[in-house]
Amino acid sequence: MRALFFIFFTFSLYASTLHLAISASPSRINPLLATDSASGEIAGWIFNGLFKYDKNGKVVGDLAKEFKFLDKTHLWIKLRDNVLWHDGVRFGADDVLFTYSLAVSPKIFTPYSSEFRYVKGIEKIDDFTIVVEYKKPYFKALHTWMIGMLPKHILENEKDIMTSPFNQHPIGTGPYKLKEFTASSDIVLYANEDYFEHKPNIERLFYHFLPDPSTQFLMLKSKKLDVGSLSPLQLERQIDEDFKKFYDIYEMPSHGYSYLGFNLRLKKFQDKRVREAINLAVDRDMLIDILFFSHAQICTGPFMPGTFAYNPDIKPPRTDLKRAKELLKEAGYDENNPLTFEIATNSNNTLRMYAAQIIQYQLLKIGVKVTIRAMEWQAFLNTVVMPRKFETVLLGWGLGLMPDAYSIWHSESAKKGGFNFVGYKNEEVDRLIKEAEQTVDIKKLSKIYRKIFALIVNDIPYVFLYIPNSITAVNRNIKNVEPSIVGIMHNAIDWIKP
């Protein structure tokens, strides 16, 4: 009887479901091709990199068991020998070599290929040991290998990785497995019983497909979600004491900013006076007051506050409508020839939609006529952003603990598949980015990045807007929740939901 009770108690404690929400359908659940947040979030449960951040933001081994630098350009890595792919095949050095060769292959278009640009080659020592040789000392030598590894035995004979069924039916090494996936529908992930750390305590992750933020909030209020985001309005005005008794609320600055990006390939936006006029006309304080009830801060530039790359000397521009009008007149725009352009954004982000409308209102004060085009996320990404078919885009960008300016600000990243889709080019910024990549001294690196920060802000390729606070509600019944700089769910395999 005691044994039966123990079995029942253990099952009831761990065999549970964590209810989450996802607002957009993933496009490709493949770590090399996951360029949107939905794909990245789901892929994060399914795949592992060689390295990861711990809760304090320190780089530690993930699939890598041990590692050391043999010299400035040679990294020795011993892989874990107890890792299985979800289909039961053992993970090893051949998978790492395959992932690398695929990442740098012309067969795929991926912005992540730039992460490997300083890798000269990889030598396989044995089935669980590799040595990575770099072309020169590289400040992100470990971070390069945080990208999820892919299974050689499944993909080595795949003719077209971009359209492979694998992207909808992924096989990884991660803590959760995906049995099936259908676009624009709920997503269910199941605990990996053979996960090398330990089987996750929570049996299932159930992502409710809820593209409408108001529906997400109603689900949260009705206690049908265990984890969910709150907007400042919802936090300040729309939750009651009963809600606060059921959920713990965690608030911290988010690792991302929102911006209005100019398509610098267009003649009208190649005139810096036009970009500066728009920059001076946008009232960021108004945006933060209306959208966030002060639960945000003004974004002054491209790198995360508190990191070595942030430049505290750069202040946000003061709203100056008079000067903005003068600049537009100098550029040839007036009442008889007004500046007109379109803001394109995604329709499933309510705050972003409101921001577009507020900016539209603000720019009308200097005679600029703005139209707004809002589209479903995947359509927006695939037909507007990546093909560069826009005048301006209102978007957000994630800020990493170890920023890398290359992927978004170097002119080489303006190519197809790159993240520099506004077409920003500055020779001095290019030079400093390359110099930074070989600088491992953090003080010298900070000086270089602060220069990059200042130069980008001065060029105004974006109107940098705001950094919202991340506000997350988590079911109080869940045990082992540990808020961290790397996110609330960094240790989700240890969570227990009775």
Overall description:
This protein has three domains: 16-22 and 166-253 and 470-494, Periplasmic binding protein-like II (D-Maltodextrin-Binding Protein, domain 2, 3-Layer(aba) Sandwich); 37-163, Dipeptide-binding Protein, Domain 1 (Dipeptide-binding Protein, domain 1), CATH 3.90.76; 256-469, Dipeptide-binding Protein, domain 3 (Roll). 30% of the residues lie in helices and 22% in strands. The protein is built from 16 helices and 18 strands. The relative contact order is 0.15.
What fold name goes in the CATH topology slot of the largest domain?
A: Dipeptide-binding Protein, domain 3
CATH architectural arrangement of the largest domain: Roll
* Arithmetic mean of pLDDT: 93
Please mark out the parts with pLDDT under 50 across 5 or more consecutive residues, or reply none: 1-14
How far apart the termini lie comes to 22 Å
- CATH homologous superfamily of the largest domain - what is it? Dipeptide-binding Protein, Domain 3
- Bulk shape: globular
Q: What characterizes the major β-sheet? A: 8 strands, mixed
Radius of gyration: 24 Å
Q: How would you classify the helix and strand content by structural class?
A: alpha+beta
> How helical, in percent, are the residues?
25-40%
- The first-level CATH class of the largest domain is given as Alpha Beta
**Count of beta strands:** 18
